[in-house]
Prior knowledge:
Immunoglobulin-like, 4 domains, 9-stranded antiparallel sheet, 34% strand, mainly beta
Amino acid sequence: MEETSGAAVEFDPEGAVAIDLRSAAGSLSLRRRADGVWDVSKPLRDRADPAFVGQLLEFCRKARIAETIDRSEVRKGKVTAASLGLDDKNAWRVSWRDAAGKELADIRVGKTAPLGGAAYVSVVDERRRPDIYVVTPDLRGLLARPQEAFRDPRVARFSAEEVVRMAVRKGEGEVEFTRQRAPQKVTVRGQDGKPTEELDEGTPWFISRPLLNAPASQAAVKDFVSMMCGAQVAGWLPAADSTGGATAEKPLLEVTLTGPAGSRPDALAFFPDPGGKGTVICRSRLRRCAFRVAQEIADDLAIAENPDNFRDTKLASMETGLVHTLVCEFVEGESVELRRVGDKWSWRPLAGGKWSDAAGERVEALVKAVNETPILAFAENSLADPGVYGLDKPAFVLRFGIAANASLETPAELTPRNSVTLRIGIDGSRRVHANFLGQPFVYTIGPELGYAIPVKAAKWRSRTLPGWSLRQVRSLRVGVGTAPAVQLRMDPLTFKWTAERDGRDVSEMLVPAAAEALANRSGSLHAGNWLTDGPAAAAALDKPALTLEVVREVYDDAPGASHEETVRLDLALMPAGPTAPYCYGRMTGIEEPFLVDARVLRELSIPLLRAPKAGAER
């Protein structure tokens, strides 16, 4: 025996469309259809086990010669074909052919070799390869099985990823799930920059019957389809018996699965099984055969009687980053419109007016609140009378647009294809209902979403307060409590600070780093929230804990042009005093008071002057 290496089968298995298996016990033929599915064509007629066929084809790629037995040793009687299992009584003969009928390979497979994981193999055409080979992997174990084991053990033809439609019928009722496109391979780049192929999610599932295009719970439908596509045959019925003794003419239920374009739907009918225990009989129209499956498969399929079991229980599933326009209309409140250009959000009253910077995080929070709002009940599936649900005069109307805006002046036109409009109504019993315009479905929701919608226009304002850079500051006047105010001035050419207090020059006592920190910190403030009803804030701000007046240089649109502007900031303690996490704030040019982090008050109250030297005039 001679050790060697090399391919045992020399052809590309992609070209194989026919595989024939023969042994003394019988023969089996496998044929590949135009859609790529392999069938057992004789003596059975059924879909072949794709895992088995895949191993036969993969053998062609992986088969390697581990050792060689020279044919002369057989002729001299040192070894016999029977001892190696290569005689007609014991051998399996396997041949592969292409679409033209040309033989690609024809081999005999004998016993498993002592080497382990290998079998004795000879090529039928001894003129080309006359020796006997020990070949890995061992094909013998794959071939030595009952004929029925070559049949596809899956109940359904398609994998869950391939299915684009699934219908379940029970009696007169039917539930159908559809999606426009199954997952497909897309090229993505990893962190190393190299392209790789991945499966995307495909398009979302919808309930198409008995509800037309009702949003479905993606997890529930995926699990349901996966359950059906993962079901296994529990036992085969003889070809002459497609009933198993069942007397029922009408099935318990029927399932139809639709796969890729061009493929035939897989229609399955389930019947009681008088001769089985814990099983039902399934008849496959596509396979033209019947078999037993576990009773729990039929039980699980029966939950489709109620389509509400598969409905999405979240109000929406919008992607925050895709929203470019938001229009908010209220029966009681200040209606506004918001537009995003690039990454910047702006807002103005819906009736028109000047655009102002908007808090983009507010829009994101609202989209998140809508997405996470739980549906408490499916109130209506055919909206005949909106007034019953308070939707004739909704308390809130929110329109979300996904088309990008070129500018604030030239926005994208909102259409039913690029926007959704959510109406929220309150009925006579104070229950809250939601409906997307153009859809017949009404959902009962809790009141929490209403609380998350800002009805005061100021709430949409950007929480970034007007600011300045150190270069823009010309002077600062800061007063803390009842202490005399300190006036600071900075020379824009030398960046040197001077200080006055009570009309006296106290520049020698000034801490320049503290003055610079005050200018920088005060120019980069953010409001924690806007106070639209703030009598307590107004009262507190009449006696501020800190007052800061800043004269800043503002650059005009004309090149090189600028002007000076004075901004006043007042901060006051909340009733809880210094321990409160926030303090009240008020600033020039902003109508509403606001909350600001209490640390800001402490940071802006830092001492600016050193203590005077002993004997010096204070």
